[in-house]
Amino acid sequence: MKRLVLLLLLNVPAHAGDIVEHARSHPDGRAAFSFDTDAWKDTEATRHLPIGVFDSGIGGLTVLEALLTLDAFNNDTLQPGADGTPDFAQERFIYFGDQANMPYGNYSAVDRTDYLRELIVKDAVFLLGRRAWPKEGKEPHFKKPPVKAIVIACNTATAYGLEDLRKAVAAWRIPIIVVGVVEAGARGVLESKAEGGIGVLATVGTCASGAYPRTITQTLGLAGRTVPTIAQQGSATLAGAIEGDSAFPESVAAYALKEARALAEAYRKTEAAAPLQTIVLGCTHYPLAKAEIDTAFHTLRQDPAFRDLVAEKRTFVNPAEATAKELFRELAQARLRLKKGESSILPHDQFYLSVPRVEETGIQLADDGSLDRDYKYSRSPGLLDFEDTKNVPLTPDLIPAASARLVRERLPAVWKQLSR
Predict the structure, then answer these.
(1) DSSP state, 228?
(2) Distances (CA, A) of 165 to 10, 145, 364, 401
(3) What's the gap between Cα 66 and its chain centre?
(4) Residue in 10, 58, 17 with CA at minimum distance from that of residue 381
């Protein structure tokens, strides 16, 4: 009864509350969707735990690249300013891509945001726990360490699940930092100081949430800045194409041009006087295709119908760097960051990916072995004793060839760690 009262006081949503209670009733972390609730009792040991990062697929690797390469602070004084050493040089990361259930951005279109919100908390529970699956084998192991902080490297997951997860962490009474990318994206708009209109290119789900226009408006308003016209375009295809999903057979460039045109048309309807200048890459997959997206807007300007609508020089906002800066400040304030000469309990970063649990009865698969689309988007929350996916080590061979090329060419720090 006390636990239920606590959940009510913290206003934990029903389905997130199901997982909160499920985890609390399995405190040893052996059951699916649970974790060892005693893992953070020793504060000094907690400092040496890795940092968790999750996304709906490989797009969050753009955020991990920023975490691996950021040099925005002095590591000794903690003051702003580069010192020649990456800010997270002593830290190690565990990355999880929920590829079996992606794209997250499409759940709202089929009225399954309740299931999406459950997926988001499940992702966090995986990072908090020790339970994972080998690449081959039918039984999980318990060798994965828990994490001391969680970065939601997914715009849709941040929009729909950030507050749920923070309330869950409070209900579990664990000292975990939770950072999301939407607020960071809004700060990126503020810091860009670009003039003209703002276009948010994101997934259907992120746009449906209204998170970016709302947060950008609040951020600029609090800074005393005039809020320019903001338009959105929610794509149901671009993230999947970047991911190499066979359901999206056209080139990334072709999908990028379609979405750029749609965003420009949405901006036209606002009847704003200034051209569209700042483009927020509101899905973590999109920075992998920044070149294709920029080319798409350049192509549009060759059409007289769009020449005055789209600025000749455009500013792209990638929330990843701002997210990395926020995490540094949060770890420093909580005294959880590792200092020079200290080391994590992990010698190297770890990577995991969700795949269909083909041995489980009741799941439906597409011809390419992925979860059937109709099955994927018809599921309901609350079945916490059923696993239709499992989280296995992510290795380069599990990434579609086109996506692997993008990671290799555009995220070199990540590719180096991933290829160990």
Answers:
(1) -
(2) 11, 20, 29, 33
(3) 13
(4) 17
Q: Is the peptide bond before 103 cis (omega within 30 degrees of 0)?
A: yes
Whether pTM > 0.85 for this model: the answer is: yes
Which contiguous run of DSSP H or E holds residue 157?
A: helix 155-172
Measured CA distances, 64 to 23, 52, 95 (Å): 27, 10, 8
Rounded to 5 degrees, φ, ψ at 340 are -55, 130
| Residues 71-106: tens digit of each pLDDT | 999 999 999 999 999 999 999 999 999 999 988 888
Kind and range of the H or E element at 363? none
CA 55 to chain CA centroid, Å, is 4
The span from the CA of 157 to the CA of 283, in Å, is 10
* Tokens coding 154: 């997914």
Span 21-62, pLDDT tens digits: 999 899 999 999 999 989 999 999 999 999 999 999 888 999
CA distances from 190 to 183, 215, 278, 298, 309 (A): 11, 11, 11, 24, 22
Backbone angles phi, psi at 351, to 5 degrees: -130, 135
Domain annotation for the chain: domains and CATH numbers: 2-181+322-418 (3.40.50.1860), 184-318 (3.40.50.1860)
